[in-house]
Amino acid sequence: MQAVRSATHPSAAGHAVRALLFDTFGTVVDWRAGIVREVAPFLSRHGISGRAEDFADGWRERYQPAMQRVRAGERSFVRLDVIHRENLEDLLVAWGAEPGELPAGELDDLTRAWHRLDPWPDAIEGLRRLRERFVVAPLSNGNIALLTNMAKRAGLPWDCILGAEVVRAYKPDPRAYLDTAEVLGLAPSECMMVAAHNDDLAAAASVGLRTAFVRRPTEHGPTQATDLEPTGAWDHVVSDFVELAASLR
């Protein structure tokens, strides 16, 4: 990991921002297009009727409720890969399929579709520019293997892999943000959360992180109705990572 260096962007507490922490699904990578791409042939191959877009949306809709069981203490922490596999099987049942009758290897491979998502067009160039002055790392609910495989495939230039599995807490649990800052040896105000989701930024800001909202108006497809604009007084509001790099000069 590169040395943690100060930058000339003081926070309200007087600390310079030294690390940029990125939500990943939807902010760095286009999860919906990637999941649709891999779901479509799977549904066709097994004669499961329905649109791949609807299947992808249904899989994603199970994401937060499943993690909430961990946040609420109803179950011990498990990796997101485990949650994705459980949600896939639950979704297949809802679509009239029987997971036990499908090849386990295919279900394993489809679960790993979340490891093979493509970055938004600006992501790699923007991260490279930002990495010249800041530590850049994911602060994602994704697990270490998932985020590492994604970065290797897509060429995401992270300095290190951080997130839920490192701190054993899923966002927006305050520990996800505070313990990540602590892992880096930084105060919360020395870290900036970068996300396309207002609720993520609100949670980060509530425990002292700086914030940057990135517009991703097609994360949920062409009819997206959420997170089109900032809903809080975030420190930066930009259209992409390249613009963020310019605003932090």
From TrEMBL:
Reactions this protein catalyses: an (S)-2-haloacid + H2O = a (2R)-2-hydroxycarboxylate + a halide anion + H(+)
Any one GO MF annotation of this record: (S)-2-haloacid dehalogenase activity
Keyword field: Hydrolase
UniProt xrefs under Pfam families: Hydrolase (PF00702)
Group of enzyme by EC: hydrolase
InterPro entries tied to this protein: 2-HAD, HAD-like_sf, HAD-SF_hydro_IA, HAD_sf, PGP-like_dom2, S-2-haloacid_dehalogenase
Enzyme Commission designation: 3.8.1.2
Annotated function: Catalyzes the hydrolytic dehalogenation of small (S)-2-haloalkanoic acids to yield the corresponding (R)-2-hydroxyalkanoic acids.
Similarity annotation: Belongs to the HAD-like hydrolase superfamily. S-2-haloalkanoic acid dehalogenase family.
Name of the protein: (S)-2-haloacid dehalogenase
